Amino acid sequence: MKRFFGITCLAMLVLTSCISKKKTTYASSSGKDARSKSKARDKSAEPNEGAADTFVFVSVSSPEEYIQTFAPVAQSEMRTYGIPASIKLAQGLLESGFGKGELAQKTNNHFGIKCHVGWEGDYERHDDDERDECFRRYNHPMHSYRDHSMFLTTRSRYASLFELQQDNYKGWARGLKKAGYATDRHYPQKLIELIERYDLHQYDAQVLGKRYTARSSSIQDGYSAYRIQKGDTLYAISRRHRVSVEELMRINGLKTNEISVGQVLKVPSDKVK
Question: What is the largest CA-CA distance in the chain?
Fold first, then answer.
């Protein structure tokens, strides 16, 4: 409840460190080597106006904790700007490595948004598609969530997305790639996989007042759902369900053997020991 209240404060644009969960606060560096300014002004986002001159890093330990922490913010942004909370959370998870990526830790940039022409806020140089690219830097993750909303709603190339239903997360995922948000040709599939793996579309349904059915309850015939417990490994799960690790990865669309507590896997239902 304490964490929820803190995040709700953030969602209402109290752009101070009102999150009461784990956080680390750093003095904001003002030296030329730490950050600099561009010449023109970006009218779509003003992340530092009225904010304390400190860098607040919100620490989370898992994708599930990231979702729990930022879901209320994503839902608030959905109500205000019409961007599905599922899409915002999936992009945050993917682009920031659930807040643990190097760029996210240095900049609080959870959406990989580059400076672009007109950005006047702080920035950081980081190697991405090219060396030494310019990325926006924020004093608080909430600034990043708000700037992501402004970034999508104020650029005409994303206008067609807002003609989609707000719970059409697959359409949004494909539309973001088509509009040029990311260069990775697998970007839509990655977002959709995250949304379905963590049932992120439940947050869209809550905002829209719609009934939600967990994806794990509709596993196809021949398979059942297994929710990962603390201490589980893919190898242990594969042994328990008499299936190879490779097959388990294939049927769940996993690219690596990394799994997390609470994640739902599809397993052969007729092979359980």
Answer: 65
Tokens linked to 137: 């830097």
> In angstroms, how far is CA 98 from the centroid of its own chain?
7
- Long-range contacts of the stretch 40-43 (C-beta < 8 A, 24+): 40/117, 40/118, 40/119, 40/120, 41/118, 41/120, 42/116, 42/118, 42/119, 42/120, 42/121, 43/118, 43/154
Are the CB atoms for 26 and 55 separated by under 8 Å? yes
Taking the C-alpha atoms of residue 16 and residue 1, their distance in angstroms, rounded to an integer, is 19
pLDDT tens-digit profile of 72-97? Answer: 999 999 999 999 999 999 999 999 99
Compute how many other C-beta atoms are within 10 angstroms of the C-beta atom of residue 83.
23
Q: What is the pLDDT of residues 96-130, one digit of tens each?
A: 999 999 999 999 999 999 998 889 999 999 887 78
Using CA atoms, how far apart are residues 190 and 201, in angstroms rounded to an integer? 15
Cα torsion angle, 51, 12, 100, 177, sign = negative
Q: How far apart are CA 82 and CA 167, in angstroms?
A: 10
Domains of the chain: 2-208 (1.10.530.10), 219-268 (3.10.350.10)
